[in-house]
From TrEMBL:
One of its GO terms (cellular component) is extracellular matrix. Keywords: Disulfide bond, Glycoprotein, Kringle. CDD domains: KR, TIL. InterPro entries: EGF, Kringle, Kringle-like, Kringle_sf, Mucin_vWF_Thrombospondin_sf, Ser_inhib-like_sf, TIL_dom, TILa_dom. PANTHER family: EXTRACELLULAR MATRIX GLYCOPROTEIN RELATED (PTHR11339), VWFD DOMAIN-CONTAINING PROTEIN (PTHR11339:SF373). It comes from the Eukaryota. Disulfide bonds join C599-C622. Residues 18-195 form the VWFD domain. This is Zonadhesin. Residues 562-627, 720-793 form the Kringle domain. SMART domains: EGF, KR, VWD. Coiled coil: none annotated.
Length: 793
């Protein structure tokens, strides 16, 4: 079947017409009637006729793109038409550019005219070429069938033979100097969304939007009359609607976004019917209502040539069939895309080009800004501003449709003041068009998915990528794990369960993280913890042994009198006081013991296990039994004399004695001596009628202890503590400080200033910080830094 239609293109002349459409996401109905889905995201030749010496030669090109994160489908972004040595661009939101300059509608020359027609912007040439674009995703090309076999492009030729058209549509990719050309276009993959989930296909066929297009349905449709003439083409558009439904459901898209896509499909069928002279009133307040701007309303059968500020009588001269769209209210006409009163129409310049009221535009040398404005009862183009010439190494060029000063090629800077030559650093070179998404250590494949326009600039040499503004060899990048952590080439790191050793290494032209070794889980009573920036097996708290094999739980006893071996959990002193944690400020020299408060005797400094208590720098002994069950040796001994009379027992006290451990060397074995343990002090007693002396083993009272002093360097004199030069490297919450010379795990801008300060607490920025602080040496920490608890001197 051929979709050649009879449609008047030029007044008093009718041609048999070849018709092709790119719509939706995108679907193509070719000149010879076949339907294809081609999801390329480059620029492609939609249709062209090129014959030497024929002034009617043309090329129509479309640029496709992904939108809103939907990668399964692409959309028509713009349409470029090259005809009569002129380049016309129909862009999104119905913006129109002629040879790069933004123009306003209607726009007329001796060879072609561009105007709004219903929901489309319509270009029509004197040779019969018609190109229309709805400013969103649908483009239509109509050409006289006399060009027939000489047509090429995705639309194919027009000879009623669908079998001789090119099937490899990627071959029509346009490689040009377009500001929208991407460095790499994605490979077009076959995608059949309805095959992903057959349920979606059934849903799409029965959805209230698509089903009105189904020519095989027995249900009455607003398009029933149109089906009689265009049944086969309507079937193709119905298939496109179902395809779109499946594609968006695969992407988990519903609601307004999906509804708009499907409504656009129905609108395409409505336009097809209108071209054949069949008006279809299919929209309702609930089914695809078409919103219109101020001073306009929806019409299913408005003139294809609406009244404009340039030609108010256009409808009376129009030879085209009625179309649907937004029609200006009575008393209003079109000024570009807005409906205005006649008194609010704009200006026409010496070349006959129209400018809406208030529009500003710049001269070709960028020296004069003109504006269309009301002068008395007339609309005139007046000089609004004069400007200085463009700066050194700058020139006046069209950019975004307007003349503006820009730096010359290979230059950068302020084009109004002056531009300087672009100099590329080491391992880089200048290129006229460079990707806006260069390959980097963080994303070596960035150019392949870049959707940003290219521009001149510096590109890294082959084998080099961007990193912190410089071009470095790929091998110097290292690797990045799933958490975004960067590793140098050759670096090894262990998984969070200590079972896998991975390494950053070169694999071909890429740096990859590969598995180097697998390990057994940590041993009994061991756990995988982050220490020194790496995960490693360690014995659980107060356990000892080989963490790869097994760790032994601590015994609640000491092997030797001084108890340096004790690693248990007793945390009370002989007087019942609770011990302080070892990594507090007052126990600074013992911070290495960790954030626990178990009794210890580090380095055998005292005579038995001990700990700090809650008051001042005081410390006390702990009562830890001997592992062999014997009486522990004495820390202090003394002789007590105690006698009783008249058969009554007597309680004897000894000044300075806090806790009595045992009694020995009694003079009179017949006497019974014993101990009464008190909350404050222990008492020795003797039974009635006995007496004598005996030796006791005891713990001294607290007042006889010597407190462990705080060194003068381990304190601060001021609140902010900028003068503190001590060696404390633990935060107030007990976390280890990161070395100031390190950039891992926390980025550190003080690494040069404090590179010799190890990981000690400091306050290098007193304006922002209230007291000494440090970065936390933990890549998983939610806080990058914490304050330290430094005492006043």
């Amino acid at each position: 079947m051929s979709t050649n239609l009879e449609f008047p293109l030029v007044q008093e002349t009718c041609f048999a017409v070849c018709w092709c459409q790119a719509s939706g996401d995108p679907h193509y109905i070719m000149f010879d009637g076949q339907r294809v889905n081609f999801m390329g995201t480059c620029k492609y030749t939609l249709s062209q006729y090129q014959k030497v010496g024929d002034t009617c030669s043309y090329a129509v090109e479309v640029k496709n793109e992904h939108r809103s994160g939907y990668t399964h489908v692409s959309y028509t972004r713009l349409v470029d038409i090259r005809v009569f040595d002129t380049t016309i661009r129909l862009h999104l939101q119905k913006r129109v550019y002629v040879n790069g300059k933004l123009v306003f509608l209607p726009y007329r020359t001796a060879q072609f005219e561009i105007a709004l027609s219903g929901t489309y912007v319509r270009l029509e040439t004197r040779c019969g070429l018609v190109v229309q674009f709805d400013g969103a995703s649908s483009a239509i090309v109509q050409v006289p069938n006399v060009y027939g076999n000489d047509l090429t492009g995705i639309c194919g030729n027009c000879n009623n033979n669908p079998n001789d058209d090119q099937k490899d549509y990627s071959r029509y990719e346009v490689v040009d100097d377009s500001d929208l050309q991407l460095q790499h276009c994605k490979k077009v993959e076959d995608f059949h969304p309805c095959a992903q989930n057959p349920t979606f296909k059934t849903e799409g066929e029965t959805t209230s939007v698509c089903r009105v297009m189904d020519p095989t349905s027995t249900t009455q449709s607003a398009f029933s009359e149109c089906f009689k003439s265009y049944r086969e083409t309507a079937g193709l558009l119905f298939s496109s609607c179902v395809y779109d439904y499946c594609a968006f459901r695969v992407d988990n898209t519903e609601g307004k976004t999906l509804e708009k896509v499907l409504c656009d499909d129905v609108s395409d069928l409505s336009y097809l019917c209108a071209m054949g002279g069949i008006t279809v009133k299919w929209r309702t307040s609930t089914l695809c209502p078409l919103p219109c701007g101020p001073n306009s309303h929806y019409s299913a059968d408005m003139s294809a040539c609406p009244a404009t500020c340039v030609d108010r009588e256009a409808p009376s001269k129009c030879t085209g069939n009625a179309v649907e769209g937004c029609e200006c209210d009575t008393g209003y006409v079109l000024s570009n895309q807005r409906c205005v009163r006649v008194a609010e129409c704009g200006c026409t310049d010496d070349d006959g080009q129209y400018y809406p009221l208030g529009t500003k535009f710049v001269s070709k040398d960028c020296s004069v800004v003109r504006q269309c404005t009301a002068v008395g009862n007339e609309m005139k183009i007046v000089v609004k501003e004069t400007r200085d010439p463009c700066g050194t190494n700058a020139e006046c060029k069209l950019q975004d449709g307007q003349y503006t000063c820009v730096c010359k090629a290979r230059h950068k800077g302020d084009p109004l003041k002056g531009c300087t030559e672009i100099t590329c650093g080491t391992n880089a070179h200048y290129v006229k068009k460079v990707t806006a998404c260069p390959a980097s250590c963080q994303d070596p494949t960035a150019p392949s998915s870049c959707q940003k326009p290219m521009a001149e600039g510096c590109a890294c040499d082959k084998g080099f990528v961007r990193n912190d503004g410089q071009c470095i060899r790929v091998q110097e990048c290292g690797c990045k794990d799933d958490d975004g952590t960067q590793y140098q080439d050759g670096a090894e790191f262990i998984s969070s369960d200590c079972s896998v050793v991975r390494q950053c290494t070169a694999v071909g032209n890429e740096m990859k993280i590969v598995v180097k070794e697998t390990r057994e889980p940590c041993g009994t009573n061991a756990e995988c913890k982050l220490e020194g920036g790496q995960y490693t097996c360690v014995c659980k708290a107060r356990h000892t042994g080989d963490p790869l094999k097994a760790c032994t739980a601590p015994r609640e006893c000491r092997k030797k009198l001084e108890g340096a071996d004790y690693q248990g959990e007793v945390s009370q002193t002989v007087t019942g006081k609770t011990c302080r944690t070892w990594n507090t400020m007052k126990a600074r020299r013992y911070a290495i013991l960790g954030a626990h408060n178990g009794c210890r005797n580090p380095n055998s400094e005292q005579k038995a296990p001990w700990c700090f208590v809650k008051t001042g720098n005081d410390w006390e002994y702990c009562d830890i039994p001997m592992c062999d069950g014997k009486k522990p040796g004495c820390i202090a001994t003394t002789t007590v004399s105690c006698s009783s009379q008249n058969g009554n027992s007597k309680r004897c006290k000894k000044e300075g004695v806090r806790r009595v451990t045992w009694i020995d060397q009694v003079d009179d074995p017949k006497c019974v001596f014993g101990l009464t343990y008190g909350r404050e002090k222990d008492e020795v007693w003797v039974n009635g009628g006995c007496g004598g002396t005996f030796k006791i083993c005891y713990m001294p009272e607290r007042n006889s202890y010597k407190p462990i002093p705080t060194p003068n360097t381990e304190c601060k004199k001021t609140r902010k503590g900028t003068e503190y030069k001590g060696t404390w490297g633990i935060t107030a919450s007990g976390r280890l400080c990161q070395s100031w010379s390190s950039q891992y795990p926390q980025a550190n801008k003080f690494y040069k200033k404090l590179s010799r300060q190890a990981n000690y607490c400091r306050n290098p920025n007193p304006v922002a910080r209230k007291r000494p602080w440090c970065f936390v040496d933990d890549p998983k920490s939610k806080t990058k830094w914490e304050y330290c608890d430094i005492l006043y001197c």
